[in-house]
Amino acid sequence: MSHQTGIKAGSALRDKEINIILTMTILMSFFSVFKPSAANAELLKFFGKCKDGKTRVLKVSIENEELRLVSHSDVKRDWEKDYDSLVRPLIEESTPCYILYRLDYKIPTGYAWLLMSWVPESATVRQKMLYASTKATLKLEFGSGHIKEELNATSKEETTLQGYHKHKVDFSTPAPLTSREEELAELRKTESKTDFGIDTKQQTLGGINCPIADAVAQALHDMRHGGYNYLQFRIDLEEEKIHLVKADNIELTALPAQIPTDHARYHLYIFKHHHEGNYLESVVFVYSMPGYSCSIRERMMYSSCKGPFSATIEKHGIQVAKKLEIDNGAELTEEFLHEELHPRKLNLRPQFSKPKGPPSRGAKRLTKPQAVE
C-alpha cells in the first residue's frame, strides 16, 4: 500500500470516528433535555369519567409537552361495528396520537381497553421519541390495569379492524423453536395424551403405550413357542403404532448386521449360551438408536415407547432377561451379551483390621525434675 493510499484510509477512518462522536453527542444532548409529557387536568378528569361504560373511544395527543384530550365518542353498537367508523376519522396522515378504545369484554377492574399508538413513518424523529417515552406515563395515569391489549400502528391499514385482527394473529403465532425447545415441546405433546381405548396409545408412568399390530402379537406368540429366535419392530410415526419388520432364526454372528444405521428399532433375540455349567436361553431386548441421524420426533417416540412395549412383551409370556440400548450393531458380540447378562463378581478383600493397642498401664506419673547441683 502506497503512502498516499494510507493517508486516504486514515482520513476516512478519522471522518467515520468524528461522525460517530457527533451522533452520540446529539443523542446525549437530546435525551438530557427531553422529558416525557404528563396529562393535563382536563384529561385526568376525563380518565376518571370515561370508565363508566358509556365512552367507546378517545383520542389523546401531545401538545406543548402535555397530554391533551382531542376528542371522544360514545358507544353506539358493539365494538367491532363501531371500530372503523369511530377510529378512522381520528387518524391524521402525519400526526401521531394515542387512541384508547373500549372493548366489550370485562375484566376485574371493569371493561377492557385497547391502547393504539399511531406514529406514522412520516413523523419526525422528535415526535417518535416523544410518543415512545410518554406511552408509559399515559398508561400509568389512565390505569394500566384497564389496558389489556396494545397495538403500535405505523400505517393506516394497521389502524383498521382488519389490521387489529391481523395483529392478534401475528402476536399469537409462536416464535421459531430451537432444537432443544422442539424436543421439549414434543415431550409435552406426548405427556398430554389422555384418550383411552384398546387400539389407542395411552400415557403411562414410563412413557407412551403405543398399540401393536396383529403381526406383532402373532410373532411374539410364535417366539414364545420356539418358532423364532429373532424379532425386529418399528414404530409408524404417522400412525403411532408398532409393526413387525422381521421374524427369523439367525446365528449370533449375523445379529449385528440386522441393526439399521439410519432408523431406530426394537429387537428381541434369544441368546443361547452356557454359564457356570448351565445351558441358558436368555431373551434380550435391544433398543437401537443410530445417534442423531434420526429426526427428533423419531428419537422421542422410540424413547417414550420403549418401557411400555417391553412390558407388553412380557404380558405375552416372554420373560426379558436383559434390556440394552445401543447405537451400533457391532456392539452385539457374544462377549458383550455374556458380560451384560452375567457381570463378573468382584472379589472384595475384607478390610484390614487395625490391631488394638497395648492394654492401659494406668495414669502416667508426674515426676518433679531434680535440680542439678
UniProtKB/TrEMBL annotation:
It comes from the Eukaryota. Its main location: cytoplasm. Pfam families: Cofilin_ADF. Residues 344-373 are annotated as: Disordered. Residues 35-169, 207-342 form the ADF-H domain. Keywords: Actin-binding, Cytoplasm, Cytoskeleton, Repeat. InterPro entries: ADF-H, ADF-H/Gelsolin-like_dom_sf, Twinfilin. PROSITE patterns: ADF_H. It is found in: Cytoplasm, Cell cortex; Cytoplasm, Cytoskeleton. One of its GO terms (biological process) is actin filament depolymerization. GO terms for molecular function: actin filament binding; actin monomer binding. One of its GO terms (cellular component) is actin filament. Belongs to the actin-binding proteins ADF family. Twinfilin subfamily. Actin-binding protein involved in motile and morphological processes. Inhibits actin polymerization, likely by sequestering G-actin. Interacts with G-actin; ADP-actin form. This is Twinfilin. It comes from Anopheles epiroticus.
